[in-house]
Amino acid sequence: MNTFAKQFNLCIYNFKEDVKEYAKKNKLNLEEAGRTLRYLKALEISKKFNYNKIATAHNLNDLISSFFINFIKSNHYINLFNLNPTFNFENIVLIRPLLFIPKQEIVKTLENNNIGYIIDKTNLSSKYLRNYINLNFTNNFINTLLNKTTVLKNYLFLKNTIDFIQNYKNSISNLSNIKHLLNIFFIEFKGITDDFLILESLFFNIKKILLNFYSNLKTLNIKYNNLRLLVNDKNCYKINIIKDWFLIKEEENKKTNKIFILYKSNFSFYLKIDLSEFNENYIEISNLVIKINVVKKIFDLEKFLKENIESLKEKLRDKNYCFGFCFDNIVIRSWKNGDYFIPYGLKGKKQKLKKFFINNKFKEYEKNRTFIFEDEAGIFLVFNYLNNIKRGRELLNNAKFLKILKEKKEINLIEIYITKNLT
Questions:
Q1: 190-209: per-residue pLDDT in tens?
Q2: What is the distance in angstroms between the CA of the first residue and the CA of the last residue of the chain?
Q3: In this structure, what is the dihedral angle of CA atoms 189, 191, 195, 200, given to the nearest 10 degrees?
Q4: Dist CA 35 CA 20 (whole Å)
Q5: Three-point CA angle 257, 260, 264, nearest 5°
Q6: Which of 46, 260, 331, 367 could form a disulfide linkage to 51, CB 3.0–4.6 angstroms apart?
Q7: What are the residue ranges in the chain where pLDDT is below 50?
Q8: Cα-flanking dihedrals φ and ψ of residue 353, to 5°?
Q9: Distance between CA 288 and CA 279 in Å, rounded?
Q10: Count of CA atoms in the C-beta half-sphere (13 A) of 95
Q11: With 0-12 CB in 10 A as exposed, 13-18 as middle and 19+ as buried, what is 167?
Q12: Are 29 and 129 in contact (CB under 8 A)?
């Protein structure tokens, strides 16, 4: 192999990985773990030399064996031909130039030209399903039943089949309208009543969405039958897709629109900001931008409120805008159990955020996407972008707040503006 590489001025990279440990850690079988590690190493080398493609040696035997493996294991018929001539892997194109050439033809060409090749001993072990199928069926099938004319016909057939599958996936995916906010994906079907079309579109769109978060979606195994249950069963409103991702079904409205919501349950964020250093701060969380601007320092809070409260209330009509009174350092974070604040109207009494969420009928995915603004005296603003619910804290009946204010003799008035990132 080294001689062959030198002849064509090629570099060979050898590496060792603990495949068993990687498989155990990532809950993969050995074959999947080995394949993922090889791809990741090839990706690393390609980035090092600024390559834009990775070629693999998959051949017709692999395509046929994959068909039967997927026939045995797959939960969706579209995966029967899941070896494509090209596909994207981690922002690079992976190509399979030998995909429609029988392995026997490749070996024969190598031997006729006295080119050496390596045989992986593990390919002779029938304890792996792929090897069992190759050793007992695929190789004999190609040797016995296929000649060059048949291979050419099958090449055209398989290429057209794969093209059809890709076009089908693209077309069926476009049936829905998808919007997202804070990694919540709203998948809406307008005027489509056929459950099969909705089911198919959901399946492909969810895979497409989750590919932005996971590089190896094959191992995540989105269960088609669970999706079917959600779509078809009127009593089923929520299913677990993978890991901590859930899909819920909203009730149909009068326009017969069906809406499904895909979200990650453990969404969280934490940002600490020193307002004494800068007058204006921009923070990005998922696809939202939070702008915090220090308007002025206030030395007589009671007098300021009497003179300005009406104008401040007027500004609150903007659903994306709010203001707050806080000290120099603030934290923006997601909700955690045990949180409480002292909201307007309770005259200094505490309210747990858990109860606040219940009273305002927050849904599960909205709770941990509520913006909690906190300073030395505690939570001063609860801002839920999805519901446009904003609650500030009581100031003049808040003992902890007044104590800190007395010590510092000043407080910041800040403007908070939250908007979608349009880039």
A1: 888 899 999 999 999 998 89
A2: 48
A3: -40
A4: 12
A5: 160
A6: 46
A7: none
A8: -65, -30
A9: 20
A10: 7
A11: exposed
A12: no
Contact 115, 4 (CB under 8 A): yes
User: Which residue matches tokens 């026939």?
Assistant: 71
Q: Is 166 left (phi over 0), alpha (psi -120 to 50) or beta?
A: alpha
Output the pLDDT for position 147.
64
Query: Tokens representing 28?
Result: 């993969």
Residue in the block written with tokens 């064996």 = 65
Q: Which pLDDT score is estimated for 151?
A: 64
Q: Which two tokens stand for residue 180?
A: 């997202």
Report which residue type is found at 48.
K
In the Cβ-directed half-sphere of 183, how many Cα atoms lie within 13 Å? 20
> What pLDDT digit, counting tens, does each position of 377-406 carry?
999 999 998 888 889 999 889 999 999 999
3-state secondary structure of 193: coil
Tally of CB atoms within 10 A around 347: 10
Q: Kindly report each contact of residues 316-320 with a partner whose C-beta sits within 8 Å and lies 24 or more positions away, as own/partner.
A: 316/390, 319/388, 320/385, 320/417, 320/418, 320/419
The per-residue pLDDT for 216 is 59
